[in-house]
Write a structure and sequence with these properties.
CATH class of the largest domain: Alpha Beta
Shape: elongated
Keywords: Activator, DNA-binding, Transcription, Transcription regulation
CATH topology of the largest domain: D-Maltodextrin-Binding Protein, domain 2
Structural class: alpha/beta
GO biological process, one term: regulation of DNA-templated transcription initiation
GO molecular function: DNA binding; DNA-binding transcription factor activity
CATH architecture of the largest domain: 3-Layer(aba) Sandwich
Order of helices and strands: HHHEEHEHEHEEHEHEHEHEH
Strand order of the largest sheet: 4-3-5-10-6-9
Strand content: 15-25%
Number of strands: 10
Organism: Parasulfuritortus cantonensis
CATH superfamily of the largest domain: Periplasmic binding protein-like II
InterPro entries: LysR_HTH_N, LysR_subst-bd, WH-like_DNA-bd_sf, WH_DNA-bd_sf
Number of domains: 3
Length: 300
């Protein structure tokens, strides 16, 4: 059985960045602290620290243990506060990874059901590449990952993809550029300067195949992994740019651009990825239940 006193000592050393500093905080000798951590490592059958020069670094097992220890002692603190008469305890922490290719306005919409829960939620958002976020999810440092594609089949971590919704794709441009384009949509895209999502996005391949099928040959003048950066270049008149139809009106108002047209032949899809098929976190449940009731919308 896990010795939680030893786990607490490990947690304090990891947080303090060294045995001597943690020992001072805990009013223990460094020898006592080192001995307790050694017993914990023996019990777990894994080394939690490795020495690099004069410093201690967490091993991979140590990083995983730290993530669990954070949850354990945070929950313990909440329990103590509730039993001592706290007003409903601290806000429940909701740790979300957001793939950097996902438009920020879409991420906000997807997370809105969690923020509307009657019990307070403390949202901790982290934006990064999907591969790195999945690693954080596997180590239980995240409760959920939002992405524009399901979990890759070749991913080395185990997880489950829950489709939240989809919508068509809109094309927008700065007013001055829109005025120079000839013809209706989509013919106006022919030979137009075009900003496209980066290679790492789910939309990129779809978009290029659709343009070829329409026999349209715009000039690709920029490609972006970050949708907000692409929108900013579009606002400046650098080129026509695509966006999820779901948030096209918001982008039009925010950036002062014009809607050229939209198509359902292209689809932006949005997913929630979890480590378990059956989830228990109330914020995750709220997001999934909202999608199952089709309140996410399919503005096309």
């Amino acid at each position: 059985m896990l010795n939680y006193k030893q786990l607490h000592y490990f947690w304090q050393v990891a947080k303090a960045g060294g045995v001597a500093r943690a020992a001072e905080r805990l009013h223990l000798t460094p020898q006592t602290l080192s001995g307790q951590i050694a017993l914990l490592e023996e019990n777990l059958g894994e080394a939690l620290f490795r020495r690099v020069g004069r410093r201690l670094e967490l091993t991979e097992a140590g990083q995983l243990a730290l993530a669990y220890a954070d949850d354990i002692f945070r929950t313990g603190g909440e329990l103590e506060e509730v039993l001592r008469g706290g007003r409903g305890g601290r806000p429940l922490q909701f740790r979300v990874g957001i793939a950097d290719v996902l438009p920020k306005s879409v991420a906000y919409r997807l997370l809105a059901p969690a923020m509307a829960l009657p019990d307070p939620i403390r949202l901790v958002g982290k934006e990064d590449k999907l591969e790195r976020l999945l690693g954080e999810l596997a180590m239980h440092r995240l409760d959920l990952v939002l992405a524009d594609s399901p979990m890759p089949e070749q991913a080395e971590v185990k997880g489950y993809s829950h489709k939240l919704g989809e919508c068509g794709v809109a094309f927008l441009a700065a007013p001055a550029l829109a005025a120079r384009l000839v013809g209706g949509f989509p013919a106006c895209l022919a030979e137009a300067p075009l900003l496209v999502p980066g290679e790492g996005t789910a939309l990129r391949g779809q978009l290029m195949r659709w343009l070829a099928a329409q026999q349209l040959h715009p000039r690709v003048v920029g490609e972006f992994d970050d949708a907000a950066l692409m929108n900013a270049f579009g606002q400046g008149g650098s080129g026509v740019f695509p966006a999820p139809a779901l948030v096209a009106d918001e982008i039009r108002r925010q950036y002062g651009v014009e809607l050229l047209g939209r198509t359902d032949a292209l689809a932006e899809r949005f997913y929630a990825i979890t480590v378990a098929r059956r989830v228990s976190h109330p914020a995750v449940l709220a997001i999934l239940e909202n999608a199952s009731r089709d309140r996410f919308g399919s503005a096309n």
